[in-house]
């Protein structure tokens, strides 16, 4: 065990360092370089445990999208060199790449730029031949960035439905069930367009449990949902869709071209590999915590539900550690991943990580030797320009203002201009949320 930390400043520094280390561990360039290599003097491409004889391949192409897609393309270009023949990806974090067209789009809502970029991606897929290899890049954020609305659905209508579901606190599986059935690229359709080429999916997961059909709305995976499921989601969350969406979903339900399921030959032979996920970030943060003298304990990588409720539970775990040494003796670092949601009732500024942080600050005792931090690993919490916040029991000095901010979904407004905000800018990755509670020994209270 390393040195103990006895004051709030040290705990806050440790929290930020652990969050940063977790984000860095999930950076696509790092994970691609660890999992994708050239072997046999450059004649064999190895992806995890899959070996591909490049002598049998005409062209190696890249196609896909997401927050991390540009960095994945850059890493692939660095590894493959002249073996990479072209491609296109859509991302909101563009980087310089010579052999792949990097199309810049918007996130978290689709735009005309996304649609134009996705047309380039589909053109790459459509042109792939039977002897080609398509490396399909699928990362968090691609549900919005890979935007190719079905021919009879207006982009503005798709945005309206997405916004309505987000505001009502719909989980990602529900939102993506609707997105997949209003799209020409999601729900296995990108893989279908790339056939008969060999398709290998390179996936960075931002979804709890890494379900391939949900990550980025599953452009290379079989779809377990149906048009009827999409309609049921809208009914469950009391969303009245625009007429183009309603008519399209009803036609699909009545038999107009369902998305490919697991038995469909268009997706059955796709070889998908999850290169990074919440575990990747958690493990990086845990290594940093141990190096800083804190015993790391992983609460869960699958935390979900309302952000405020999750914050209360996390604080309770930290309090238990401080008071009883269960389940781990302090000094300790409690880590969790996953994705919480916010049911929007106000019109303030904020996201799940900011609400989690503010609720946690309200719950923490001012004298408790505990610091809480929560960030979105892509660097942008909800629609804000910050990743999240790091707080302690002294953060909230006006409880009425804090509870009002939560009621109005204005955690961002509450934290504005304060030192608690974590600003990273675009991180190059997206593996969901990352949280930490740094807990010191309560016997050290008097040292502060």
TrEMBL record:
Residues 247-256 have a biased composition (Basic and acidic residues). Residues 333-433 form the MOFRL domain. GO terms for cellular component: cytoplasm. It comes from the Archaea. It holds the Pfam family DUF4147. Residues 244-266 are annotated as: Disordered. Keywords: Pyruvate. The keyword Cell inner membrane does not apply. Residues 16-250 form the MOFRL-associated domain. The keyword Nucleotide-binding does not apply. GO terms for molecular function: glycerate kinase activity. This is Hydroxypyruvate reductase.
